[in-house]
Amino acid sequence: MVTPNARRNRGQVILIGAITLAFILLGIVVVFNGVLYTETLSSSATSQSTADAEVIEQGLEDDLIEIARRGNQNDDWKSSNDFEDEITNTGKFNHQYRNLTANGRSAFMSLTDVTAEYGHIATNVPIDGSPEQIDVDDSKIDYLVLDLNATNHEKVNVTTDKDSTNVTIESNSNSFEIDGCEIDSADVRFDLVNGETDDPSAVDCDSDELQNKLSLIDEGVSYDEVEITEDNLGTYDIVARDGFDGNPDSSHEGVWKIEGNITYQSDKVSYERSISTILIDGDGE
Question: What is the pTM of this model?
Fold first, then answer.
């Protein structure tokens, strides 16, 4: 026969065991959750660091393209190594960029083994009223800009050898018109690659509409010749990948492709990779 005291003692033992088991299970859950949380934080931090590295890397490539294009337009590259020197040797870009990433975050990035391939560029080439034939010798054109003044200009027509594609820009004393799209300015630079002007506020039509009318040169397409016919005076700038066939005479070196090695290192991510950036198009062909 079980006495009341024995039943009471057994109940207390069961209660204590249940409480102990509950604490054990709770401890296991806490530890398990802590491990999962730590792993999640680690994975999240690594992913964020990788994303940061990709942003920095893209910014670096954008900066290189901008330096190359500004140098192309300003005739900065007098010899075949000038761009490389500007980036990694006598120039300050690589040193300043490395310091910028190091000061801005706990990361280090450097650019080494920079090489550039050069094409030809001509700037401020006068258009004397007669047809101007630009022989680009099966080259891809990175930049073609007309600099026109409406007061001494009536109409300019630019034609390529690709299906006779063309664009016509007419003036109205102090403004320009492209197929019904008005540009209310007397001095305008027309970009025939990007389909833009240097004063978007003067354009009375939608930017997409202007781009569709003005974009004559397709990136990644090879051209043999471009003809500019103008009633009066103007100038143009052009950058072609491979060069000009003896015309214009004022052509000089311009960068069209950049290659190099990037090293990125932080407390969470470390890698090295090669970059190849084409200013003309994205496929290198």
Answer: 0.61
Measured distance CA(126)–CA(185) in Å, rounded: 21
Examine residue 238 and state whether it is found in any structural domain, yes or no.
no
266 & 216 share domain: no
Whose CA is closest to 143, among 74, 78, 192? 192
Q: How far apart are CA 51 and CA 276, in angstroms?
A: 20
pLDDT tens figures, 235-244: 888 888 776 7
The domain tally of the chain equals: 2
- C-alpha distances (whole Å) from 56 to each of 33, 49, 119, 208, 275 are 34, 11, 28, 30, 13
List the domain range (segments joined by +) for residue 62. 7-120+254-284
* Both tokens assigned to 236: 């143009």
Q: CB neighbours (10 Å) of residue 123?
A: 21
DSSP state of 218: P
Nearest by Cα to 140 from 158, 160, 124, 159: 160
Beta bridge partners of 197: 190
Which contacts qualify for 43-49: CB closer than 8 Å, 24 or more apart?
A: 45/268, 46/268, 46/269, 49/266, 49/268, 49/269
Give the pLDDT confidence of 1-29 residue by residue, as tens digits. 545 555 555 656 565 666 666 656 666 65
Distance CA 226, CA 35 (A): 66
